[in-house]
C-alpha cells in the first residue's frame, strides 16, 4: 500500500503546476543606462505521456508567457523515452507548443541527451521551423550581453574550445550569460561567465524524506543538483525542469522554471 500511495503522489507531483523560482543577480559589468532584464530558464519538458502531453505543455507555455520575460532559454531534453511511457511524440509534436512562447529578445535553445538519443535532425529542423534559435557551442550578441549556448555534455557534444573561439569574436566587455543542458561543464569552463543556467538533474526527481535523493545524474554528485549555486565564485542556476525520466513520477522535486533578473546592483 505504501508503494501504491507513493506512486500516486509521485504522479500527482509530476503533473502539478510548475513552481516559478526567482532570483535577482547583480552583474558587475552591466552596461550603464541599460535597465535590468528578465531571463526565463525552461528545461526538460520531456514530452511523453502519461505525465507530459501537448495540452499540458501548452498550459505551461501560457503560464510562462505571463512572466513577460525579456528572453527565454530552453535547456534541452524536449522528449523522454521513459520506460513507463504510454505514448511517445515526434520532434515536431514536442516543439510545436513551444512556438507560442513570447519574449521580445527571442527564444533560444540547446539540445539535451534525450534529443540526441531520439531524433537529432528532427529537433534541429523543428526548432528552425518554429523560429526558435538553436545554439551549438556558439555565442551570439543579444541585447546588452553575450549569450553562450554549449551543446550537451552528457553525450559528448560539448565543445568548449569551439565555444571560446565563437565568444572571442564578440565584445569582451559585455556580460556573458551561458546556458546548456547539464551543469557538469562548469568546472571546465575556459572563459568567464556571469551566470550558467542548466537543467538535466531534475533536482533529483525523487527525493524521499529521511532517505533523500536516490540518484544523481552528475559525475559531481550533489554539487550542481538544484537551485541557485555559488561554486568557487561561479553563479549557477539548475532548474528541476518540467518532465520526467525513467518513471513518470516526482517526489520532493516538483517541476519548476526560473525567472532571473539580471542588472546592476540587484
How does this structure look, described?
The chain is of the alpha/beta class and 266 residues long. It is 21% helix and 24% strand. The protein has five helices and 14 strands. The model has no long low-confidence stretch (mean pLDDT 96).
Question: Quick summary of this structure?
Answer:
The chain is 21% helix and 24% strand.
Give the SSE string. Answer: HEEHEHEHEEEHEEEEEEE
Uncertain spans: none
Pairing-aware structural class of the strands and helices?
alpha/beta
Tell me, rounded to a whole number, the average pLDDT.
96
Number of helical segments? 5
Dominant shape: globular
Radius of gyration: 18 Å
- Strands side by side in the biggest sheet: 1-14-2-3-4-5
Tally of DSSP β-strands: 14
Distance between the termini: 49 Å
Largest sheet descriptor? 6 strands, mixed
How much helical structure, as a percent, in the residues? 10-25%
In terms of DSSP E residues, the strand content is 15-25%
Amino acid at each position: 500500500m505504501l508503494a501504491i500511495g507513493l506512486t500516486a503522489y509521485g504522479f500527482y507531483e509530476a503533473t502539478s503546476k510548475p513552481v516559478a523560482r526567482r532570483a535577482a543577480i547583480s552583474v558587475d559589468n552591466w552596461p550603464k543606462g541599460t535597465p535590468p532584464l528578465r531571463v526565463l530558464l525552461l528545461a526538460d519538458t520531456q514530452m511523453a505521456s502519461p505525465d507530459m502531453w501537448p495540452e499540458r505543455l501548452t498550459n505551461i507555455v501560457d503560464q510562462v508567457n505571463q512572466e513577460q520575460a525579456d528572453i527565454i532559454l530552453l535547456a534541452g531534453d524536449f522528449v523522454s523515452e521513459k520506460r513507463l511511457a504510454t505514448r511517445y511524440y515526434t520532434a515536431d509534436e514536442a516543439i510545436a507548443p513551444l512556438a507560442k512562447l513570447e519574449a521580445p529578445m527571442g527564444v533560444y535553445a540547446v539540445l539535451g541527451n534525450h534529443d540526441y538519443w531520439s531524433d537529432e535532425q528532427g529537433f534541429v529542423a523543428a526548432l528552425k521551423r518554429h523560429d526558435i534559435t538553436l545554439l551549438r557551442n556558439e555565442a551570439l550578441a543579444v541585447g546588452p550581453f553575450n549569450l553562450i549556448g554549449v551543446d550537451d555534455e552528457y553525450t559528448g557534444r560539448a565543445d568548449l574550445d569551439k565555444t571560446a573561439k565563437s565568444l572571442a569574436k564578440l565584445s569582451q566587455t559585455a556580460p556573458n550569460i551561458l546556458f546548456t543542458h547539464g551543469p557538469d561543464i562548469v568546472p571546465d569552463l575556459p572563459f568567464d561567465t556571469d551566470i550558467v543556467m542548466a537543467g538535466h538533474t531534475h533536482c533529483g526527481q525523487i527525493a524521499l524524506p529521511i532517505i533523500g535523493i536516490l540518484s544523481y545524474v552528475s559525475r559531481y554528485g550533489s554539487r550542481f543538483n538544484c537551485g541557485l549555486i555559488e561554486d568557487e565564485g561561479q553563479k549557477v542556476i539548475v532548474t528541476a525542469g518540467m518532465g520526467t525520466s525513467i518513471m513518470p513520477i516526482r517526489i520532493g522535486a516538483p517541476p519548476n522554471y526560473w525567472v532571473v533578473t539580471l542588472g546592476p546592483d540587484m
